[in-house]
Amino acid sequence: MKWATRAGIHIDRAACAWLIRRHVDKEAAFVFVTDPAQVPAGATPFDMRGVELGHHGGDCSSMSCCAGCR
Q: 4, 46 in Cβ contact below 8 A?
């Protein structure tokens, strides 16, 4: 499965990628984009504005990823 996030390393993005690979999708392939409009069809976006696996209220993206793993 493909997963997409913003380009550039950040602790929350790295934590999400680790959680996804370790607990959700052992065969995960990651795509890094500079614009959310560049997310490939079929890829699940994370740590971007307006996506399910992003910041919500006081929760960071990695917390959303954890909640999605339950």
A: yes
Residue 42 phi, psi (nearest 5): 90, -10
For residues 4 and 29, give the distance between their C-alpha atoms in angstroms, rounded to a whole number: 9
- Whole-structure pTM value: 0.81
DSSP state of 38: G
Read off the pLDDT of residues 9-55 as tens digits, 9 standing for 90 and up: 888 889 889 988 998 899 999 999 999 899 999 999 988 888 887 77
Degrees to nearest 5, angle at CA 69 with 50 and 3: 55
- Distance, CA of 39 to CA of 5 (rounded, Å): 8
